[in-house]
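Q: Two folds, back to back.
A: First:
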Amino acid sequence: MSFARVRALVVVGVLAVAALVFVVVALVRDSQRDLASGSDCPAGAPLADVRLPDDPAEVTVKVLNGTSKSGLAEQVTEQFRNRRFTVEEPAKSKTKFKGVAEIRFGPEAVGKAQLLRAYFLAQSEMVYSPKRKGATIEIVLGNEFQQLATTTEVNQSLVQVGEPTLPPGACLKPVEAKAEKTEDAG
């Protein structure tokens, strides 16, 4: 073996060892490890689920009519049902709303509310309540509401609004791995 080949192998070996040391140091000093597991969370802080749903059927919606237009909540509820959302019975809001829509949600529905925000082209008011229980999202339709966005518009709106962010005072809910389906060979 020539001296040039030995020298090349030594250089490659040193680079490989340096890369390995760099990776180990980066993993040991990772400051975000506790953030992902939720272990750095203060006691009593709500755990927020910021994941966008894979399927609209994972999102439960209750539409409230905050206008004087009769039957609006029923129409929009049917539109959400046709788009594969899980819907609850529509109702009349106790208060009138002037804007496009108000989306009310709690810690369990942060990512899901972000998806619904896209259906209103990010023109809705997001109302987060840390004490709100359950994953059902209430939508109060306002006087400025005209129609839900199309699928293409929703996708474009999701790109514009970006990933869901952690609400103030909340901690990241640990992600549970989905159980993989296994088939018995017997």
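A: Second:
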Amino acid sequence: MFRMKKEKEPTRSAKGVMVAVWNPAGSDSSLILEKLLSHVKKREETAVVVELPCLGLPRVAYRMGVSELEHAQTVDQLLIDYDRGMLQGIHQYLQHFEGFDGLLIQPKSKPDSPTLIKLQQDKTLSELPAYLKVNLSGYHYIFVVLQGQLIHPMTFFSLREADYVVLSMNEPVEIIRAYAAYKALRQDYDVQSASLFSSEFRNGDFKEEPILSRPEQLFALWEGKKDGYRIDQPGRVRTVPSA
């Protein structure tokens, strides 16, 4: 009986693995987020989602069917309080959803009055990703959903701060932008943990880098090797043939 109870518990201690989820072509990266959250739930682990408002688009809330949030429990309020030195404990800003906690953009935020123009200190944008990583480390995974470009400070510093980066693509044409961002991150900014991901687009004739298509491949990559996948020296995911 004791052994059966132990097997149901998470097999890995929470350590706050920060994963930046980014679509460099500018389309919705919350599609892959849903798959990642579903896989975390299957693993009986915990996750928190932070949607950073570089463009002010409340995509995650719309994807999850959330039409309104308490303003005090949004990433918008967290940013303003951080900027003005009035920050409360981070868990007071979190909204609880089924299967995860979230710091999301207010769905009813005004497009002509985004949170970023209300900030007074430039350092708020560059410091916030590190603050989030430290203060949300009690979760197994911290999924930071990005929507800007490399010139946007919160997007850039989140990519630098993250343990792993997922460059998502929703349609084949986005490979052009995604691969350009992949090369820039690795060659210019020494971000070696980026992976290309698409549920719709397979490698086909694109031989430069692997394009992963299932969330379990990402988790295998992050964990070194697991469930029939092996990570070779350059960081590629290979299927291990069954005996």
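Q: And?
A: Residues 1-10, 226-235 have pLDDT under 50 and may be disordered.
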